[in-house]
Specification:
- Helix 5 packs across helix 7 and helix 13 runs antiparallel to helix 14.
- The chain contains 18 helices and 26 strands.
- The chain is α+β, with helices and mostly antiparallel strands.
- The relative contact order is 0.06.
- Helix content is 33%, strand content 23%.
C-alpha cells in the first residue's frame, strides 16, 4: 500500500510540475542511476549496469571540475586557511561543540522537543538547526580532531534524520511559521551541505554510499524548492532558495530535471534582480545586511556559472555589479558604511563592514574602485567559495579612490552629503524612503540622519538582533536621530512574526516625501517631509543644509492648530553643563560634536539602553515651532563652539548680518547670508517682501545679489519698488535684475 501511495505521489508531481525527481521522498542510492540523463547513463554503463562505486567516482570528478575549488586540495587549503585565519579554530570549535551538546545526531524536526540537556527548544533555535550552519563548524572540527570519523557520521546521521522526518511527515511546516523546508532555510541548508560534501569528498570515512545519499538528498531538496517557487515572490527568502536551486542544477546537471531547474531558477533570479534591485542600485529592503545577503545569493551562482563556462546574459552581470557599486556610494570616508534599518551582523555596532563584500566584487569584476575598499584576503567564510587564482589575485590589487562625493539614491531614498575621501572628512546621510511592497525591515527613522566626522560616527544608528527582547526599542524612533511630537513614535502597531523567532515589524510607518536634494557652488540642501504626525494634526518637514563642509544645519518645522510638545532625538553621550542650547560629545581622539540650538528650547532629557545613550530636546506647549540646530563637528578642543561667548562664531559664520531683516535667526559670512523665518529684507536700497516667513540664502556682490529659497514649499517674492512678484520654488534662485 505504501509503495502504491509513493508511486501516486510521484505521478502527481510529474503531472503538475513536469519533473520526475520526487520532492517528498529521497531517492534510494540504488535507484539514483534511473534519474541520470541518458547520455550520462550511456557513458557510465557497463553491461547495462552502473555500480555505486563508479557513480560516486564520477560525481567526485564532476565536483572537482565544477565546485568553487577542487576537493583534492582540501588538506593544503586547510593548512593555508589555518595560517590566514588563526582565530577561526576557536570560533569553529566553540560553535561545533555548542551544536554537538544541544542536538543528538538524530534530532526531532517538529516542535515541541528538548535539547539534550532537557531544556525546551524555541522556534529561533529550530530555524538555526534547519539552516545547518553549525554543521559546517563540525566539519571543520573533524579536521581539528585528527579526522575522527564520528563527526562525519554525525553529519550523515543528522541529514538522514531529516530525511526520515520527511518520509514520516514529522517536520515543521511553513503554516506553523517555522517551515523546515521553507525556501530560506532549505536554501541555506543546501549551501552548507554542499560545502560539507566537498570538504569530505576525499575522506575514506565518507563512503561512496554516504556521498550518493547526500546527492540524493540535495536532489530532493531541489525538487521541493522548484515546486514551492513556481512564481515570483518578493523578498530574500525566495532569493536564497532560488540561489540554492541554481547551484544544485549546475553541480548535478547530470540528472533529469536539472536543466528545467536551472532555467527556472535563473529566470526567477533575474526577475528578482529586476524588481528588487532598484534603478539606483540598492536592494529594495533598504538595509546593508540584506543588500550584502543578496550579493552572496547571486555571487555563489555567478561563480559556478563562470566555472562551468555557462552563458549568463549582460543584464545579470550588470545588475550584480551594480550591487557592489552601491556599497562604494554609501561608504563613510573610513571605508565602512552606515547602519540602515535591520542590519544584524553585529548588534549595537554603529557601522557596517563592507570590505569583505567589495573584495568579492573585485574578484568578479576587477574594478579598481572596488579594489580601493578590498582586503588582501577574502573573509574566512568566503575563502571556501573562491578559486586559487582568485586568492592569488588579491596579492596585487589595483586600487583607485572614488571620484564621487555627495550622492543620492532617489528610488531607495538615501541622500548623502560627503566632503571627500580623506580619513577625517565629514559625511551625513538622510533616510527618506519607504518600500511600498515590503517595509518589514524598516525602522522608525523616516528623515533620520547619521553622520561621521574626524574618524568617528558622531550621530549613530545601531545594528540590531532579532532574538533580543528590546528589538522594538532599537527599531523605533527613540534610538534614531529624528524629530517627534508628544509621545508619538514613528513606528506603530509593532507585531512579532508568527514563528516566534523574535523578528517583528511595524504595520504603520510615516510616508516620506522628498521635496528636493541639490548641491550648488555654495550650499548642499535636502528638504523633505512625512505624514507621521497627521493623526495629531501636526504638519512636519525637515531641512538639512551642508554649510561649506564645515557644519550642518538641521531645521525641523512643526505646525498645528493645537498645542503640542515638539522634540528632537540625538544619539550619543553628551555633557549637559551648557544645556539646553548647547550639548557636547567628545571622542577618544579629542574630536567631538557640538549641537547648538539657535532658537531657545525648554528642556532636555537623557535616556539609554545597552550601553547606548540618547538625548531628547523639547519645546513644550506650543502650536508652531522650528528647531534650528547646528551640528558642529570639531577636530580638536580649540575648534569647538566657544561656550563662553554669548554669540559664538561657527567657522567664520556669525549670528549678525549687515542686511536689515525681520528674520528669526541669521548667519552671515562675508558676502553670504542665511535667513530663517524672514518676511522682509532691505538690501542694496531695495525692500523685498515674502508671502510668509521663509528661509533663504542670499549671496551679495558689489552691485548685485541673488536669493535662493531654502523653504520647504513655494512662496511669493515681491520687490516693493516695482511691485514685481515672483513665485520661488524650493532651492530655486532669484537673481536681482
Amino acid at each position: 500500500m505504501k509503495t502504491i501511495y509513493t508511486t501516486l505521489l510521484l505521478l502527481v508531481s510529474i503531472s503538475i510540475f513536469g519533473q520526475k525527481t520526487p520532492s517528498k521522498k529521497v531517492i534510494e542510492v540504488s535507484n539514483l542511476v534511473n534519474y541520470l540523463n541518458d547520455d550520462v547513463k550511456s557513458q557510465l554503463s557497463e553491461n547495462g549496469k552502473i555500480s555505486t562505486e563508479k557513480l560516486a567516482s564520477y560525481f567526485r570528478d564532476k565536483f572537482s571540475e565544477r565546485y568553487f575549488y577542487d576537493y583534492k586540495t582540501v588538506d593544503n587549503r586547510f593548512k593555508e586557511y589555518a595560517n590566514l585565519y588563526p582565530k577561526a579554530v576557536e570560533s569553529h570549535t566553540t560553535r561545533a561543540l555548542d551544536h554537538l551538546a544541544k542536538f543528538s545526531s538524530t534530532p526531532q524536526w517538529k516542535l515541541p522537543f528538548n535539547y539534550q540537556n532537557g531544556k525546551p527548544l524555541n522556534a529561533y533555535a529550530l530555524r538555526h538547526l534547519a539552516r545547518q550552519h553549525k554543521m559546517v563548524d563540525i566539519a571543520f572540527y573533524y579536521f581539528y580532531q585528527q579526522k575522527d570519523s564520528k563527526y562525519i557520521n554525525y553529519f550523515t546521521e543528522q541529514m538522514q534524520s531529516l530525511n526520515t522526518a520527511l518520509h514520516q511527515n514529522k517536520f515543521e511546516v511553513l503554516e506553523d511559521g517555522n517551515g523546515v523546508y521553507e525556501s530560506f532555510r532549505s536554501g541555506y541548508r543546501i549551501l552548507n551541505w554542499l560545502q560539507i560534501h566537498n570538504l569530505f569528498l576525499g575522506e575514506k570515512a565518507y563512503s561512496d554510499k554516504d556521498q550518493l545519499k547526500t546527492i540524493a538528498t540535495l536532489l530532493q531538496h531541489a525538487s521541493y524548492l522548484f515546486e514551492i517557487n513556481q512564481n515570483f515572490k518578493s523578498g530574500n527568502h525566495q532569493t536564497r532558495g532560488l540561489s540554492a536551486l541554481a547551484m544544485v542544477s549546475i553541480l548535478l546537471r547530470d540528472f533529469v530535471d536539472t536543466d528545467v531547474w536551472y532555467n527556472h531558477s535563473m529566470k526567477l533570479l533575474a526577475e528578482h534582480l529586476s524588481k528588487e534591485i532598484n534603478e539606483d542600485g540598492f536592494q529594495f529592503e533598504r538595509t546593508v545586511h540584506y543588500h550584502k545577503s543578496d550579493i552572496g545569493n547571486y555571487f555563489y551562482v555567478y561563480q559556478l556559472v563562470k566555472n562551468s563556462n555557462l552563458k549568463v546574459d549582460d543584464f545579470w552581470k550588470n545588475k550584480l555589479e551594480s550591487l557592489f557599486t552601491t556599497l562604494t556610494k554609501i561608504s563613510f570616508p573610513d571605508k565602512s558604511a552606515p547602519v540602515f534599518s535591520d542590519d544584524t551582523d553585529t548588534p549595537w555596532a554603529e557601522k557596517n563592514d563592507i570590505s569583505d563584500a567589495l573584495t568579492l566584487g573585485y574578484l568578479l569584476f576587477e574594478n579598481p574602485t572596488f579594489g580601493y575598499f578590498a582586503n588582501n584576503k577574502v573573509s574566512g567564510k568566503m575563502y571556501w567559495y573562491t578559486s586559487k587564482n582568485q586568492l592569488e589575485n588579491l596579492q596585487s590589487i589595483q586600487q583607485e579612490k572614488p571620484d564621487f562625493k555627495s550622492y543620492s539614491f532617489p528610488e531607495t531614498g538615501y541622500y548623502i552629503m560627503r566632503e571627500g575621501w580623506n580619513s577625517k572628512d565629514k559625511m551625513l546621510v538622510i533616510s527618506a524612503g519607504l518600500d511600498a511592497e515590503k517595509p518589514d525591515h524598516q525602522h522608525g527613522d523616516i528623515l533620520g540622519i547619521q553622520a561621521m566626522a574626524n574618524e568617528n560616527v558622531i550621530l549613530p544608528n545601531y545594528q540590531v538582533r532579532y532574538s533580543l527582547k528590546d528589538l522594538e526599542l532599537f527599531k523605533n524612533s527613540m534610538t534614531k536621530n529624528v524629530a517627534l511630537v508628544d509621545d508619538e513614535l514613528q513606528g506603530k502597531k509593532y507585531a512579532s512574526n508568527k514563528g516566534g523567532s523574535g523578528f517583528g515589524k511595524f504595520k504603520e510607518l510615516p510616508k516620506p516625501k522628498v521635496i528636493i536634494f541639490q548641491k550648488n557652488e555654495d550650499l548642499e540642501v535636502f528638504i523633505g517631509s512625512h505624514d507621521g504626525f497627521k493623526n495629531l494634526g501636526v504638519e512636519y518637514s525637515r531641512q538639512v543644509i551642508n554649510v561649506e563642509n564645515d557644519f550642518w544645519i538641521v531645521k525641523d518645522n512643526f505646525s498645528s492648530d493645537k498645542k503640542h510638545n515638539y522634540k528632537q532625538v540625538w544619539q550619543g553621550h553628551y555633557s549637559l553643563e551648557n544645556s539646553p542650547n548647547l550639548l557636547r560629545s567628545s571622542f577618544s581622539n579629542g574630536s567631538g560634536l557640538d549641537i547648538y540650538q539657535l532658537n531657545k528650547i525648554d528642556k532636555i532629557k537623557t535616556d539609554g539602553a545597552r550601553g547606548k545613550q540618547w538625548i531628547v530636546t523639547s519645546k513644550t506647549d506650543t502650536k508652531d515651532f522650528n528647531f534650528i540646530t547646528i551640528l558642529f563637528p570639531f577636530s580638536k578642543y580649540d575648534n569647538r563652539i566657544d561656550e563662553e561667548k554669548e554669540n559664538p562664531d561657527f567657522k567664520g559664520w556669525s549670528k549678525n548680518s549687515s542686511i536689515i531683516s525681520d528674520a528669526t535667526q541669521t548667519l552671515s559670512k562675508n558676502d553670504k547670508h542665511l535667513f530663517f523665518g524672514v518676511k522682509d529684507i532691505r538690501i542694496q536700497e531695495k525692500t523685498i517682501q515674502f508671502s510668509e516667513k521663509v528661509d533663504i540664502f542670499i549671496k551679495v556682490t558689489k552691485n548685485d545679489f541673488s536669493i535662493q529659497s531654502l523653504f520647504h514649499k513655494p512662496f511669493v517674492l515681491k520687490k516693493t519698488e516695482d511691485y514685481k512678484e515672483v513665485t520661488i520654488n524650493p532651492l530655486e534662485i532669484f537673481k536681482n535684475l
